[in-house]
Amino acid sequence: MDDDEPFDSVDPAARSRHYSWPPLPTASERTPHAGLDALRRIVDGERHLSPGAHTLGLELSSVADRVVTMTAAPGEWALNNGGTVHGGIVSGWVDSALGYATATVVDEGVGYSTLDLTVRYIRALRQEKTPATIHAEVEHVGRSTCVVQAKVLDTDGRTCASASGVMMLFRP
Q1: What are the coiled-coil residue ranges (predicted)?
Q2: Which element (helix H / strand E) includes 120?
Q3: Number of domains composing the chain
Q4: In sequence order, what are the residues at sequence separation of 6 or more whose Cβ sits closer than 8 angstroms to the Cβ of residue 93?
Q5: 4 within a domain of the structure (yes/no)
């Protein structure tokens, strides 16, 4: 394994998790973060997700214009005391998916950040019903904001959470 290659190792018997995250991109590498080509390089394994998305256990499965699909297979570390996936973890998944969906519609050099996020928890997400699938789709792109809708589905295809968010765009 390459020294810079991120890893996530869980030992359920010891209740321990050891992981590393990818290095932050240099200033010259940050500009090409937007656009379908940059996201396709992540899907193809040529680039990494953000350190936060990696830590939350996300994988970018597919990208298209205005749409991304991500998956997440949470370990026991992501559960609440009721034995279901913690809502904050689900919210983190959705926030990442909103950002990656936004990246499909902005040009190189345009930055973005979450301005507003609303998550509606519909049913508990049980670990045995994962990996979860997170679909995010851009609904509207304006000069300064991007509106994105998202759903979190269990392995039965049932919606566990739906979300909407507004991303602020930082145009050069």
Answers
A1: none
A2: strand 111-121
A3: 1
A4: 56, 58, 70, 72, 132, 134, 152
A5: no
Task: Work out the number of other CB atoms within 10 angstroms of the CB of residue 4.
Answer: 9
What residue numbers bound the domain in which 118 lies?
17-170
- What string of pLDDT tens digits covers the 172 residues of the chain? 455 677 777 787 888 878 777 777 676 665 556 788 889 999 998 888 888 888 899 999 999 999 999 999 998 889 999 999 999 999 999 999 999 999 999 988 888 999 999 999 999 999 999 999 999 999 999 999 999 999 999 999 999 999 999 999 998 8
Q: Is residue 67 part of a domain?
A: yes
Q: What is the pLDDT of residues 147-163, one digit of tens each?
A: 999 999 999 999 999 99
The CB density around residue 134, as the number of other CB atoms within 10 Å, is 29
Q: CB 64: neighbour CB atoms within 10 A?
A: 13
Q: How far apart are CA 63 and CA 42, in angstroms?
A: 10
* CA–CA separation, 2 and 74 (whole Å): 24
Q: Is the pTM of this model over 0.90?
A: no
CATH number at residue 146: 3.10.129.10
Residue 6 in any domain: the answer is: no
